[in-house]
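Fold this sequence, please.
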Amino acid sequence: MSKVLIVEDNATVLNLYRNALRGAGFTVHAAADGAAGLAAVSAFEPDAVLLDLVLPSMDGLTLLRRLRAEPRHAALPVVVFSNAYTAEKLNEVWKAGATQVPAKASTTPRHVIDAVRSAIAARTPEA
């Protein structure tokens, strides 16, 4: 069973996607801010991260950059999921190493599940 870490400070959004991912067969762990998310990646060792950009203590972009700076997390699939998109911010997110970047406002739980599955499948070698 694949493991997903959700880093999201909005409890309603967190619960919606945690329940959807669990219902789809994922083991899910959550962190409510960037610093806790960074610690959780090492402790939980997820197969993918669903990451909001606007977070307390450490924003999602900083968290993504710190993950990519660590060799053991350099290829970890990170689906950046936020409404904080300007053209400049979107460029920064891709440059920092996002795997996928769906927009919260126009994405359903099914889209998120599919994005996480495809990000994990792209990283996992065929058996």
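Strands lie at 3-7, 27-31, 48-51, 78-80. Residues 27 and 98 are 21 Å apart (CA to CA).
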